[in-house]
Amino acid sequence: MDGMRQAWQDLKDRLGAMTTNQRLVLGMVGVALLISASVFGLWLGREEQAVLFADLTAEDASKALAELTKRDVAAELTNGGTTIMVPASAVHRLRVDLLSEGIGSSGVVGYEIFDQRDWGITPEEMEVRQLRALQGELTKTIESLRGVEAARVHLVMARRSIFSSQSTEPTASVVLTLNRRVGITAAQVAGIRSLVAGGVESLRPDHVTVIDNNGTVLSESYAEGVAGASDRQLELKKEVEQHLAAKAQATCS
C-alpha cells in the first residue's frame, strides 16, 4: 500500500515539475492513445462482411435494407447502391429468408423472365430478354461455385453479315466478387470460361475474360501461372531443336 502511495506521489511530483507546454503535449498523447485503442478495439470486434445480394435495382435494395433494419442486422451498400454487405456468419441464412419473401430475387433474373406473357413484345425486345435470361442463368450457376460470393456476366453476341469484314465473333466478360478466405483456383477459372463458352453458340473459351472486383484479369494471370510455364518450355524446346539442327547442318557442310 505504501508503495502505491509513493508511486502516486512520485507521479504528482513529476507532473508538478513539468511546464504547461509539456503537460499539454502529454495530455494530447494520452488522448491520441485512447482514441487509437478505441478504434483498434472496434476494428477487432467488427465481423467480416460478405455479399448478400449484388446487381440489385434501387427498389430491391430499398426493400432489402428495410427488412434487414427490422431484423436489427448491420448492413451497408456498396457498388453504387447495387450490392448489400452483411456479417459473413449470417449471409446464407439471411439470403434464404429474404428470397423466401421475394426480396432480392430480381437482382439476377434467369429464364423466369419468360414467366410473364407479353403478347405485344417485339422481336428486338425478345432478343434482349433472351440475352438477359442467358446472362442471369450463367450468373446464378457461377455464384454457386465455392469461393465466389457474387458474379456478373456480360455477353456480346455474334453479328452475322454477308460481308466477312462486318461479321464479329461472340465474346464474354465475367466479373467475380471472391471470398477472401477461400479464393478461387486456376481450374475454377478455366471451368468458368468453359461454362460460359458452352452456353453461347460459337463462343470460344479464350474469348471469355474473367476478372475480379479489383480489376485483376484472372483468365490471364491464372493461365500464366498454370499454362505459361509449359508454353515457355515448348518455345525453349523449339529453339534448342532449331539450334541443334543448324549446328548439325553446319557440321555436315
If you had to describe this structure to a student in words, what would you say it looks like?
The protein is of the alpha+beta class. It contains eight helices and six strands. The strands form two sheets. It has a three-stranded antiparallel β-sheet with strand order 1-3-2, covered by helices on one side. A three-stranded mixed β-sheet has the order 4-5-6. α6 packs across α7 (218-226).
List keywords for this structure.
flat; 8 helices; 253 residues; alpha+beta; single chain
Brief digest:
The protein has 253 residues and is an alpha+beta fold. It has helices at 2-17, 20-45, 58-70, 91-100, 123-143, 186-199, 218-226, 228-252, and strands at residues 49-53, 76-78, 83-87, 148-156, 171-178, 208-212.
Question: How is this fold's topology laid out?
Answer:
Blueprint lengths: L1 H16 L2 H26 L3 E5 L4 H13 L5 E3 L4 E5 L3 H10 L22 H21 L4 E9 L14 E8 L7 H14 L8 E5 L5 H9 L1 H25 L1
Parallel strand pairs: 5-6
Antiparallel strand pairs: 1-3, 2-3, 4-5
Helix pairs in contact: 6-7
Biggest sheet, spatial arrangement of strands: 1-3-2
| SS strand fraction | 5-15%
The chain-level mean pLDDT equals 75
Which range best describes the helical content: under 10%, 10-25%, 25-40%, 40-55%, 55-70% or over 70%? 40-55%
Could you name the ranges where pLDDT drops below 50 across 5 or more consecutive residues? Answer: 224-233
